[in-house]
Design brief:
globular, 8 helices, alpha/beta, 10 strands
């Protein structure tokens, strides 16, 4: 069963000074099956974040259809079970970690008691209890990233969309987060779509990968096939993107 399906999607950005096309995203067909950990890879400016924003209906296509769990992404209910971690985000600077997590958790429209219970389970699993009283302005980059991740996870999620999710984590916390997300994937069939420039993280974490460049999907493959054919995700990536010609 597909959790995301994209057909005949086109999004054009025009230059401000004239009507010529500055960037065009064009995807004929892309299907992400439920239960996959899907890595979307490509250089800066290749269309990764644009595609994510289109999926979430944060920006609007010129043409094309996107469904989430079989529901048009134009309908609000399609996103009821989707958690999103953008690459760049912020929280009120004077809130504590716990207060920010709680108030943003309320946006899931769950009963307050369930939100609190869910958050405390996340704090325990991700070993965050020691920083709950710290104000946002006192948090390190990695701690802020933890807060964003908790916000994406709270609630009954079936799909996580994570843009550069491991930014700022030290190796120990990165391993802890990967282990937790992998367990949710295995136990609850949670689908995860991530972008990352850290190819070694993708190799450890993902089980399917796609390459995007200049707004077009170049290749979609299972990690198993990629490793069999290329040895590493890095070799696979540079087959398409190595500009040295080697």
């Amino acid at each position: 069963m597909s959790i995301i399906e994209i057909n005949d999607l086109v999004k054009k950005y025009k230059k401000k000074k004239d009507t010529s096309i500055e960037f065009k995203l064009s995807i004929k067909n892309l299907v992400i099956e439920r239960g996959k950990i899907f890595g979307l890879l490509g250089p800066n400016g290749s269309g990764k974040s644009t595609l994510i924003k289109l999926i979430l209906d944060l920006i609007f296509p010129d043409t094309g259809l996107i469904t989430i769990l079989g529901i048009s992404n134009k309908l609000k209910e399609s996103r009821n079970f989707v958690g999103y971690l953008p690459e760049n985000f912020s929280f009120p600077q004077n809130y504590s970690f716990e207060k920010a997590a709680y108030y943003f958790g309320l946006m899931n429209k769950w009963p307050k008691k369930e939100i609190i219970n869910n958050l405390h389970k996340l704090y325990d699993e991700l070993e965050l209890t020691s920083i709950l009283d710290k104000r946002v302005k006192e948090l390190s980059k990695g701690m802020i990233q933890n807060l964003g991740l908790v916000n994406a996870l709270v609630g009954q999620k079936k799909l996580l969309i994570l843009d550069e999710p491991f930014n700022g984590f030290d190796p120990l916390q990165k391993r802890r987060v990967m282990k937790y997300l992998s367990k949710q994937n295995e136990d609850n069939n949670l689908t995860i779509l991530i972008t990352s420039h850290i190819l070694s993280d993708v190799e450890v974490f993902c089980n399917q990968v796609a390459l995007i460049n200049n707004g077009e999907i170049l290749n979609v493959n299972s990690k198993k096939n990629v490793l069999n054919d290329h040895g590493t995700i890095e070799n696979y990536y540079f087959k398409y993107f190595d500009i040295t010609g080697e």
